[in-house]
Amino acid sequence: MLTHDAATKWMERWDRQQEGYLPDREERFTVLIDAVEALGRPDPVVIDLGCGPGSLSARLLERLPEATVIGVDADPLLLGLGRAAYPHVRFVSADLRTSGWTRGLGLERPVDAAVSTTALHWVSEQDLKSMYAELAGVLRPGGLLLNGDHLETDDATPVLARLERAVHDRQSERVFGANPPEDWRAWWDAVKADPDFAELDQERTTAGADHRGSESSLLSQHVGALREAGFTEVGTLWQRGHNRLLCAVRG
């Protein structure tokens, strides 16, 4: 049985390894939540797409305790960790690549914002189009999609794309030097070796939830899919190197 205290320690370790790829992770969280808060509702309905164990969902509720935040993910282990660490967050098991994923969210009114951090690049371009189209159906007019991720521009501006990656690499070197945090694979190896996660790990294996590769890492793929889904304004709200916060407004 995974206890709250044990889950909290694993979440601290999760956050550290994520920062190894995102030295500005907390700043990006802050800007994203600033944008949700700027919508002007103390009680927004927010969907966290590909929420993992809920780092962003928990931070949203710290800032906006009256909000309804629904974390959506298909990974049983990360959802189990999140439920143990953040019992005040509502988690829903659903595959964003499967049509009808919004039906299980139990929405009582249109959604004010959908948010995501370092998750949607796992989704293929074709699945991204259908996911954004379904999302548009539950977002209110003027609602936001806020997606923080490493999004590349090699197809449009290859020189700038190289410079963006260089800026990110220099920042990482300044922050971590020769001692970066453990990487993603090391964290997963450690979790799988912990008996507390044995049942969740088996569920994860059965569900085939392990991610490989990067299916939609280009900024243009997301912009095109969002415009096709009816989002009228799409642009970068915050950026350092190729780490950016993409914002789209539902028409």
From TrEMBL:
One of its GO terms (biological process) is methylation. Pfam families: Methyltransf_25. Keywords: Methyltransferase, Transferase. Gene3D superfamilies: Vaccinia Virus protein VP39. Transmembrane segments: none annotated. SUPFAM superfamilies: S-adenosyl-L-methionine-dependent methyltransferases (SSF53335). The keyword Methyltransferase applies. GO terms for molecular function: methyltransferase activity. Residues 46-143 form the Methyltransferase domain. It comes from the Bacteria. This is Methyltransferase type 11. The lineage of its organism: Bacteria, Bacillati, Actinomycetota, Actinomycetes, Streptosporangiales.
